[in-house]
Amino acid sequence: MRTVPSPDPELFPTEAAPERENAPESASKAESGASASQQTGTPAAAPEPAGDLEPLFARLARSEFRSRFRLRTAERAYVTEKGLATIRRHAADFVHGRLAPAFPPNDGRQTPMRGHPVFVAQHATGCCCRGCLSKWHGIPAGRSLTEAEEAYVVGVLMAWIERQMAR
Ligand SMILES: [Zn+2]
Fold it and tell me: What confidence score (pLDDT) does residue 122 get?
């Protein structure tokens, strides 16, 4: 039986702030060269070891919206308490349950803005909903994620969390 961490409803009001991304970001994306690889039909981020995430993190750093996210004290404490292996399992569960379906319930609003370090990582890395996954990672919406894509997303989330913990 899977132990999916159940979000405390009190911590996650249903009116989670809608995602706001503005024009400057799309401009910076245009010059990033990511569009070229998207046009080939190959996901911009084919599942690869975490070594090749530098260009992604550089693009994210240019987004005012994405770069605002940080792990706060309680979330950092949670990572320390649970350990990275457990956090990775939570990430895999969230990605599988909330992001991987072809049409995730409540898509665009399924990821709370806080309350679990993985949620924060999802917003920070453009892995919060299928629209953002398409925009930032070139993984098309409207179909289920492959196992490799799920693993890739988990890798991105964990890389972000590890970077935050090293700050
Ligand atoms: Zn999103």
Answer: 98
Residue 15 to residue 25: CA distance in whole angstroms: 24
State the distance from the centre of ligand 1 to the C-alpha of 132, rounded, in angstroms: 4
Distance in Å, CA 109 to ligand 1 centroid = 7
Cα–ligand 1 centroid distance for 111 (angstroms): 8
CA of 134 to the centre of ligand 1 (A): 9
CA 124 – ligand 1 centroid, Å: 10
Range of the domain at 161: 52-165
The residue whose two tokens read 């049409």 is 103
Instruction: Give the tens place of pLDDT for each residue, 61-109.
Output: 999 999 999 999 999 999 999 999 999 999 999 999 999 999 999 999 9
Q: How far is CA 97 from CA 1, 50, 68, in A?
A: 14, 22, 26
Number of domains forming the structure of the chain: 1
Residue 4 falls inside a structural domain:
no
Residue 7 lies in a domain: no
pLDDT at 105: 93
Do 102 and 144 touch, CB atoms closer than 8 A?
A: yes
CA–centroid distance, residue 110 to ligand 1 (Å): 9
